[in-house]
Amino acid sequence: MPKDIQTPPGTGHVGTMTPDQNELLKEMWSQIFSIADSGTVNVPTDILTATETASAGSETASIKSKTATKKGWFGTSKAASPAVAAGEDTPSVRVNLTDIGLSVEQLRPALWNNILGDHPGIRADSLLLRFLRARKWNVNNGMTMILKAFKWRLEDDIEEVKSKSEDELDAKYRGFRLQMELGKSFVHGTDKEGRPIVYINVRLHKPADQDAKALEKFTIYVMEVGRLMIQPPVETACLVFDMTGFGLSNMDYNFVKFLVQCFEAYYPESLGILVIHKAPLVFWGVWKIIEPWLDPVVASKIRFTRSDKELTDVIEAERLPNKYEGGKDQFTYQYIPVQTGENDRMKDAETKERLLDEWKSHMWKFESLTREWIECKKVEGARAEDVIENERNALAKELRVAYFKLDPYIRARNLYHRSEHPVLQADGATVWTYKN
Question: Which of 8, 88, 111, 314 pairs with 288 at a CA distance of 20 to 30 A?
């Protein structure tokens, strides 16, 4: 990844937040803790005014919320900060988990399993910030959005694509492995902004070749794998829809709707750029149908390229496969099947439990520090916020190390672990190999 990639200040990402945005992030953490502890959350009615003020860059209005500390994510926490009472005269509305369709028991693992999909600890704040930015810093709307995303992940069993091998998924969803064997979609390299590139060869798609659910599961598989490949400070991916050879027989409107919903509702702020490459004349009639479905934010990230040379405006020639004119990377996609014994560590319950306990120990500390960080300006005599933030950042790194020790015991190995030059490393790093 180029060394000069930086996220502009004030854009609401980790390390670039304004003081107002930082307070709204704290508020969202506070609301999540409140739900996890009691099953309900008090959302002040003046939150919209506060968030609108913050997004305009002025001082954030005072937002007070009840933060109970009886429990942590998986049970009773031994190191919780004292609770702070809500403002006495603050009008509020109650958001009940049952209104969303979640239980307290479901919420805790849903949050942390989602965090673990990225880079643990480092990305804990990033996950919440994605939903805050997607809802223009309205904490109430952000909370509703993230809870609905959690519900979807549980109902659709998103963890399944991580815990099962490709062969197991293929046995359950007809045509799952076919997507990989054909090379219909794969991840390779990074663009000029350091974003991992997902190539989609649309001409290879025939709706009848696989069950619709298999295609959805494969899409989630690619997204969940891709999340691991996004290396800080980068937070988004690049999609290249190669329309070469596209015909109406390749069109699948239901899948397009699903993909749009994923980027807008379930993986917000994850798309950096979507390149539609060499769209033939027949596509433009299809585009007139699809375009109105797109959220303006997603639509603004779409770019059309008519020639291979234009792809080099987005992707360095040295990283662009040489199947495209001007590309210098001698890369040819090849699917490597599941290897015998590659997931044997998932059967080692004793080691898994030990490593899980180690990870939980770091997680408890991270939660406790987060509670302290939320309250540090509200409680007289509290430790300085920057001191707590430094401790929290250090602990996030420990959390990451602990997670990737655990990873092979809870996540099945995938194509990007077993390739000739493995992309996903044991420590969570991503290493791309280009043949020039």
Answer: 314
Closest CA to 366 of 102, 74, 137: 74
Pairing of strands 302-305, 185-190: unpaired
Sort 125 into a burial class: Cβ within 10 Å, 0-12 / 13-18 / 19+.
Answer: buried
| Over residues 44-58, mean pLDDT | 32
Q: How far apart (Å, rounded) are the C-alpha atoms in residues 160 and 286?
A: 33
Return d(Cα 117, Cα 120) in angstroms, integer. Answer: 8
Half-sphere exposure of 367 (CA within 13 A, CB side): 29
| β-pair partners for 242 | 201, 277
Q: Which secondary structure element, helix H or strand E, spans residue 181, and what is its range?
A: helix 176-182
Range of 265's domain? 166-319
| Domain total in the chain | 1
Q: How far apart are CA 319 and CA 200, in angstroms?
A: 16
Write the pLDDT tens digit of every residue in 162-209. Answer: 999 999 999 999 999 999 999 999 999 999 999 999 999 999 999 999
Query: Is there a domain that residue 264 lies in?
Result: yes
- DSSP states along 229-291: H--TT---EEEEEE-TT--GGG--HHHHHHHHHIIIIISTT-EEEEEEES--TTHHHHHHHHG
Structural domain contains residue 75: no
What is the reported pLDDT for 6?
52
- Any domain includes 243: yes
Q: Is residue 219 part of a domain?
A: yes
CATH number at residue 268: 3.40.525.10
Q: Which range among 163-177, 287-301, 377-391 shows the weakest confidence by mean pLDDT?
A: 377-391
Give the confidence band of 8 by pLDDT, cuts at 50, 70, 90: low
pTM across the whole model? 0.85
- Contact of 276 with 243, CB cutoff 8 Å: yes
Question: Tokens at residue 396, please?
Answer: 């996030």
